[in-house]
Amino acid sequence: LAAVEAGRIDRALSIAGPLAQAAGVEETPAQFVARECSHHAAITFLETSEARTRGVQLAVTGATFELPGRVRVRPGLLQESFWLREVSTQHDLAVKLSKMAQASLALRGFEFEHVVESILEKRSSGDEGAAADLIAATRDYQLLGKLAVVRLQTSRPCAVLQAYIGREFGANMAAVGKHPALFTLLMKAGQHFSQITDGKDPEGPLDDAQGKYDFDVMKAWSERR
Which residue did the predictor score with more confidence, 144 or 65? Predict the structure, then answer.
C-alpha cells in the first residue's frame, strides 16, 4: 500500500506475488494489489468519517481566522500558514485514498471500455469473480466521487485563500466595489460548486455492501465530480 501511495505500482506488484502466495490466495499480483487497495481505501474512509466531517466544517467556515489571539491577517502570510492541521490532514488522507481507488480501478482494467463490457457480460452469466470486481469498482467510483469534494473543500486554496477573501468581503462590503472582478469570480466559484454537488449522492457499496447498484450511474456521477 505504501508503494501504491508513492506511485510505485511496479514495486507493489513485485511485493504482492510473495504476499499472495504466503496468504494462500489464488490471485495474480495485480488482483491482490487491487483488492487490498480497494478494501483499505473503503475501510479507512468509513472509519474516519467523524474526523473528516470536522475537517471539512473547519475548512468551509474559515475557522482558521477565528482562533483566539489571531490579529488581522496580512495576505502575504496566507501561502505559509493558516492551513489548520485538522484540515490539511483530511486533505492529505483524501489524496491518499483517491490514489488507492484509482490504482484498484486501473489494475482491474476498468480504464478500458472493452474490459468493462467483458466484466458486465461475465457478471450477467453468473461469474462470481466478475460480480465481485464490479462491486469493488462501483465502490471505488463512489469513493472517488465523495473524495473529490473533500479534496477541494480542504485544499489550501479553498480552506485558506477563498475563506480569507469571503471573510474580507463580509467584513467590508465596500471592498466589493473596489474589487468587482474578484467578487464575481468568488460568486462563480460558489455557483459552480453548487452545480457539481447539487442533488443527493447515489447510494452504493459504501452505504450497503449487500445492495444492488447501477455501475454505469455511479461511474458517470463520479466522473462528473
Answer: 144
- pLDDT tens across 122-146, in order? 988 988 888 899 999 999 999 999 9
Residues with Cβ within 8 Å of residue 109, at least 6 apart in sequence: 115, 116
Note the pTM of the prediction, 2 decimals.
0.83
The answer to whether residues 101 and 38 touch, using CB atoms and an 8 Å cutoff, is: yes
How far is 60 from 52, CA to CA, in rounded Å?
A: 12
Ramachandran angles phi, psi of 210, nearest 5°? -100, 0
Task: Write the DSSP string, 81-113.
Answer: S---HHHHHHHHHHHHHHHHHHHHHHHHTTTSH
- Percent composition of the chain: helix, strand, coil (DSSP 3-state, to 5): 75, 0, 25
Q: How far apart are CA 65 and CA 167, in angstroms?
A: 9
Residue 178: exposed, middle, or buried by beta-carbon count in 10 A (0-12, 13-18, 19+)? exposed
> Residue 212 and residue 123: Cα distance in Å, rounded?
13
The Cα–Cα gap between 154 and 89 comes to 9
pLDDT at 12 over 70: yes
Whether residue 37 contacts residue 143, with contact meaning beta carbons closer than 8 Å, is answered with: no
